[in-house]
Design a protein that fits this description.
The protein has helices at 30-40, 68-71, 96-108, and strands spanning 7-12, 18-24, 53-57, 60-61, 83-89. The chain has a 5-stranded mixed beta sheet, covered by helices on one side. The longest helix is centred in the last third of the chain and has 13 residues, at 96-108. It is an alpha+beta fold. The protein contains 3 helices and 5 strands; from the N terminus they run ββαββαβα. May serve as docking site to facilitate the association of other proteins to the plasma membrane. Keywords: Cell membrane, Lipoprotein, Membrane, Methylation, Prenylation. Its main location: membrane. It is found in: Cell membrane.
Length: 116
């Protein structure tokens, strides 16, 4: 495969920092990209699995089984340019006790307006 076939990607993190740019084969899956991101993630705040990370390109949330070719948006890309994908982390799940407590608090703090 020629080097011209590679796609140059960078990943914009939630805090505005970037990972990359790096070149990837067009047949690379989104799951592989997420694994590469997790390997280079700052360890003090790293997500646990690839399912905790979402990649967004041109407003689409990318599925893990898609390839880079399937997830590209050719209308938005400049030829030979770097494609920026946004990285979003799903917040950690609360345990059942905290979740019940938050649900209970929400119900007691509700107000209602009535327009007559």
């Amino acid at each position: 495969m020629a080097g011209d076939d590679l796609i140059e990607l960078k990943f914009r993190m939630f805090d505005g920092t970037d990972i990359g740019p790096n070149k990837y084969d067009p047949s690379t899956t989104v799951a592989s990209l997420k694994e590469a991101i997790l390997a280079r993630w700052p360890q003090e705040i790293a997500p646990k699995t690839i399912n905790d990370v979402k990649l967004i390109n041109a407003g689409k949330i990318l599925e893990n089984n898609w390839t880079i070719t399937e997830s590209r948006a050719p209308v938005c890309e400049l030829p030979g340019g770097v494609i920026t994908m946004h990285v979003v982390v799903r917040p950690p799940m609360l345990d059942k006790n905290n979740e019940r407590l938050l649900t209970k608090d929400r119900k007691t703090n509700r107000c209602a307006c009535t327009i007559l």
